[in-house]
Amino acid sequence: QSALTQPASVSGSPGQSITISCTGTSSDIATYNYVSWYQQHPGKAPKLMIYHVNYRPSGVSNRFSGSKSGNTASLTISGLQAEDEADYYCNSYTSSSTWVFGGGTRLTVL
Amino acid sequence: QGQLVQSGSELKEPGASVKVSCKASGYILTSHGLNWVRQARGQGLEWLGWINTYSGNPTYAQGFTGRFVFSLDTSVSTAYLQISSLRAEDTAVYYCARDLRSRGSYYMDVWGNGTTVTVSS
User: How much is the CA Rg of chain B, to the nearest whole Å?
Assistant: First the structure.
């Protein structure tokens, strides 16, 4: 199972919105609404930000939202804040009953 | 809500074995599966596999069969990852993460604090 494809980096200024894409295949994203997104700050464990494509866990800011079209999922962060600077990973369930992660995207807040 | 606490950093020589522990608290270990994920320095997250904590049945990702073994000790609410015949390329931070598929929810909601395994002579 190959890793999902994410851009290596994205950037935005405070207050702006950014979108991170995550492209998979017919064996994962296209078939299942089981896409999740994780935020990871340096030296820290990943933190769940979005699950089942567009659901936010309790405590996660509503500035974070998710969507999916075909075999591509997206994470949008609106009203960028300095603390959003981190690495972001998408993850999907697969037809083999396994998990696959994206390669990760480094978000820089300018 | 639940918490996963992992064992401390390990420094091992090539060819040795290591056993990483992941202790569950605040919930019953056997009520949810457990994934193992690793992250080499400066690299992304890589899924190693998961263990059905109710049945004890492990599933390993491609490339992680043979040297990697998942196990449980439910009496102390702890899961283990054992890696044998360690190689330099096994140097990474290893995470455990709770899997909610048993409840029809497909994501990893609680993560351990990570265990750094360094393989060096």
Answer: 14
Return the C-alpha torsion angle A53, A54, A57, A63, nearest 10. 130
Taking chain A (110 residues) in runs of 10, the rounded mean pLDDT of each run is 92 97 96 97 97 96 97 98 98 95 97
Measured CA to CA in angstroms, residue A1 lies from A65, A73, A95, B61 at distances of 26, 17, 10, 9
Assigned token pair, B40: 């080499």
Rounded Cα gap, residues A7 and A106, in angstroms = 8
Chain A residue closest in CA terms to B5: A45
Quote the tokens at residue B26: 């605040």
**Range B99-119 burial, b when 16+ CB lie within 10 A, else e:** bbbeeeebbbbbbbbbbbbbb
Closest chain A C-alpha to B92 CA, distance in angstroms: 12
**Chain B residue whose CA is closest to A44:** B113
Q: How many residues does chain A have?
A: 110
C-alpha B62/C-alpha B54 separation (Å) is: 23
| Res. B103 pLDDT band, cuts 50 70 90 | confident
Nearest-neighbour CA in chain A from B115: distance (Å)? 10
State whether A104 and B95 contact (CB < 8 Å).
Answer: no
